[in-house]
Design a protein that fits this description.
heterodimer, A: mainly alpha, B: alpha+beta, 5-stranded mixed beta barrel, 41% helix, flat, disordered C terminus, NA-bd_OB-fold (chain B), CcmE-like_sf (chain B)
Chain lengths: 251, 162
């Protein structure tokens, strides 16, 4: 197998050039998908027969929860790459993705609480799904705090990578909590193998929103990583040339 | 892959496997405590403790809801298909509360195994549909089939959860 692309990815300069090309596409896709998904989901999708209009919070809640878990898996993969291949860019990705993941977890918890009050009759209940999601938020806080608390960059990268990898055990617990235990949270509406338990005009805007959130995450991550790469490579000639070129462009 | 990287990869995977096994053991030991509620079968077989606050969950039996005329007191029966538990509650029920709906009630069991609840939460299921579809289902008599299939599914799932 040819691993050149993988090793190339480790080069900050190459990453900076290629990400500059992807960024506008991701940003445009994110704006379009989220705009279409929001309008379709909030205004045109039919209300639910039991919950009425309050079910529409699903169009924020589910994409945020998807992202919260996916980003954590990404942190663990970045941590693994950083530990095993000593790739500096993996650490940049890990550090820069963590705050976005924490925000997504927070949004999922918050929208869930807002929806829970009218639907279940309570904002919060200590069931397995909600509790494991709260633990995910604390894991994100842990990764962010650890990265900021250790001044030596290499030790910080190692500590964050280990925490990210160990914490990934929580992800299958979140996913299967609704099946392993009695919870108040309902089981998943969507699965890879079965038809969704929802009609097309309800799940299509949701799918668009999920894709839009992924694109938004991609765009924000690239933007943050590019800035961090420039900061870390500030002494190299390519980075200085790039900064000079940017400065000349903006009078 | 060069040997140093391979070794590091194995160390990381070994740590992950170790933590995974530890968490799995801890969770299986805590199995009963993580469940949010006891099913009516568990209450009937005496698995649920007396004289302490517990949660009971299941489907509200059709035709079992009795509201008092001059107060907020409501009596209803919760079932998992095999056993039934009577629940007495005084207060405002959540919007989703209705016959056939899954609910979770928190309170104490009295001597006749009636749960005196001080909190009733409605449990939503994973199915969503527009109101027109539901009306059409009701008209064509499909709803009974749908509900029966769902109840069977739910009780099978609850049996599995134990």
């Amino acid at each position: 197998m040819n691993w050149t692309w993988f090793h190339k990815l480790g080069s900050p300069k190459w990453f900076y050039q290629i990400s500059g090309r992807w960024l506008p596409w991701l940003a445009v896709a994110a704006v379009l998908l989220i705009a279409v998904g929001l309008v379709w989901g909030l205004a045109f999708a039919p209300p639910d027969y039991q919950q009425g209009n309050s079910f529409r919070i699903i169009y924020i809640h589910v994409p945020a929860a998807f992202l919260a878990q996916s980003i954590y898996v990404m942190l663990a993969v970045a941590g693994l790459v950083g530990l095993v291949w000593k790739m500096k860019l993996a650490d940049v990705a890990l550090q820069q993705a963590a705050p976005f993941g924490a925000w997504m977890t927070f949004i999922a918890l918050l929208t869930g609480a807002i929806w829970g009050k009218p639907t279940w009759g309570t904002y919060w209940v200590w069931d397995a799904r909600l509790t494991s999601m709260l633990i995910l938020l604390f894991l994100y806080f842990g990764v962010i705090a650890l990265g900021n608390a250790i001044t030596n960059r290499d030790s910080a990268a190692k500590a964050c990578a280990v925490l990210a990898i160990v914490g990934v055990v929580n992800i299958p617990i979140i996913k299967y909590s609704v099946e392993w235990w009695n919870t108040l949270h309902q089981p998943a509406t969507f699965s890879v193998v079965a038809k969704p338990a929802m009609p097309f005009e309800m799940w299509m805007p949701l799918l668009i929103m999920v894709l839009g959130f992924y694109c938004l995450f991609g765009a924000v991550l690239l933007l943050r990583m590019r800035l961090e790469v420039l900061k870390r490579e500030a002494r190299s000639s390519w980075a200085q040339a790039e900064i000079r070129a940017q400065l000349e462009k903006t009078p | 892959m060069n040997p140093v990287r391979k070794k590091r990869l194995y160390i990381v995977l070994a740590i992950l496997a170790g933590v995974g096994i530890a968490v799995a053991l801890a969770l299986s030991a805590l199995q009963q405590n993580i469940n949010l509620f006891y099913t009516p079968t568990q209450i009937a077989t005496g698995e649920a403790p007396q004289d302490t606050r517990i949660r009971a969950g299941g489907l509200v039996e059709e035709g079992s809801v009795k509201r008092s005329g001059n107060s907020l007191d409501t009596d209803f029966v919760v079932t998992d298909g095999a056993q039934r538990v009577t629940i007495r509650y005084s207060g405002i029920l959540p919007d989703l509360f209705r016959e056939g709906q899954g609910i979770v009630a928190m309170g104490k069991l009295d001597s006749q195994n009636v749960l005196i609840a001080d909190e009733v939460l409605a449990k939503h299921d994973e199915n969503y549909m527009p109101p027109e579809v539901m009306q059409a289902l009701e008209k064509s008599g499909m709803k009974q089939q749908h509900d029966a299939a769902k109840a069977a599914q739910d009780s099978a799932k609850q049996g599995y959860a134990q």
